[in-house]
Design a protein that fits this description.
alpha+beta, Arc Repressor Mutant, subunit A, three-stranded antiparallel β-sheet
């Protein structure tokens, strides 16, 4: 699965359903590219298209339960691989990494807030 596909599924899982055009903006890809990616994700059962309750003309993209399971599996595998690498570090490097974790977590929060603010839902 491409990094963009993982990013789209993660965004949908974190923020809820989004318009395809908003996903294209947040991922910094063209709308035709996002349309093709969403079609692939829906064909795989990882995402689905839904009508927006307040405006039937608006189509939203949402992550499915299968998509969420796929993300969890990928995160678990990534965490295991990272754990194996961290175990190879010496004590000083481990302490340095541990001390940096709060700042790294805050950066991740800020990145998520920045991305979320660029993809508002339509008004009801």
């Amino acid at each position: 699965m491409s990094l963009t596909a993982v990013s789209v599924l993660s965004t949908l899982e974190r923020t809820g359903p989004r318009r395809l055009t908003d996903l294209a903006v947040s991922e910094e890809v063209t709308q035709p590219s996002m349309t093709a990616l969403v079609t692939q994700l829906t064909d795989l059962g990882l995402a689905e298209r839904r009508r927006y309750p307040g405006d039937a003309r608006v189509v939203l993209v949402a992550v499915t339960e299968a998509g969420s399971r796929q993300l969890r599996a990928m995160r678990t595998a990534g965490a295991s691989a990272l754990t194996e690498l961290i175990e190879k570090l010496d004590d000083q490097d481990t302490e340095t990494l541990t001390a940096a974790l709060p700042a790294l977590l805050r950066l991740m929060e800020l990145a998520g807030e920045s991305q979320d603010s660029r993809t508002p839902l339509p008004k009801r």
